[in-house]
Amino acid sequence: MILKCRVCNKEIYVSSAQLLLIQRVNGPVTCSNECLAKFIEDEARSVDPNMTLIVKQLGETIKATLPENIGFALMVFDFRQDGFYWMSNGDRQDIINALREVIKQNDVH
After folding, report:
1. Are 28 and 6 in contact (CB under 8 A)?
2. Where are the alpha helices (DSSP H) in 28-91?
3. CA–CA dist 103, 89 (Å, integer)
4. What are the backbone angles phi and psi of residue 36, rounded to the nearest 5°?
5. Are 55 and 86 a contacting pair, CB within 8 Å?
6. How far is residue 91's CA from residue 71's CA, in Å, rounded to a whole number?
7. Radius of gyration of the chain, Cα coordinates, nearest whole angstrom
8. 67 forms bridges with which residues in the sheet?
9. How many angstroms separate the CA atoms of 2 and 5, rounded?
10. Is 77 helix (H, G, I), strand (E, B) or coil?
């Protein structure tokens, strides 16, 4: 299968297994580390500081409301565009593991 780099539009040839991995991770399709770095830099510029503040305030409210031993992850997104804002009180890897479990439990083919 042929995909296009999201930064430079170069054609990328991927196997079925690679395509499945790309779909599961839902990451950007880039042809090189340089294009990936550019993509990440461009995405960082598109962050809305007002949304960042709102999510931080919501997260702090949730954290203050829950018992100390309860973890949470808050994801907020705009239906009209890609990307999302998130906050949690857990370690990054714990949150990633929890998200993988949610996907696994809800994955419908």
Report:
1. yes
2. 33-45, 49-65
3. 20
4. -65, -45
5. yes
6. 9
7. 17
8. none
9. 10
10. coil
For the whole model, what pTM was predicted?
A: 0.52
Tokens representing 25 are: 């991770």
Tens digit of pLDDT at every position of the chain (109 positions): 677 777 777 877 767 666 555 555 556 677 777 777 777 666 655 678 888 899 999 999 999 999 989 999 999 988 887 778 888 998 888 888 888 888 889 886 5
CA distance 70 to 86: 17
Query: Running DSSP on this structure, what letter comes out for residue 57?
Result: H
Q: Would you state the structure tokens that stand for residue 34, as one six-digit string? A: 């340089």
- The residue assigned the tokens 């960042």 is 52
CA distances from 100 to 96, 103, 105 (A): 6, 5, 9
Q: Are 86 and 74 in contact (CB under 8 A)?
A: yes
For residues 8 and 31, give the distance between their C-alpha atoms in angstroms, rounded to a whole number. Answer: 8
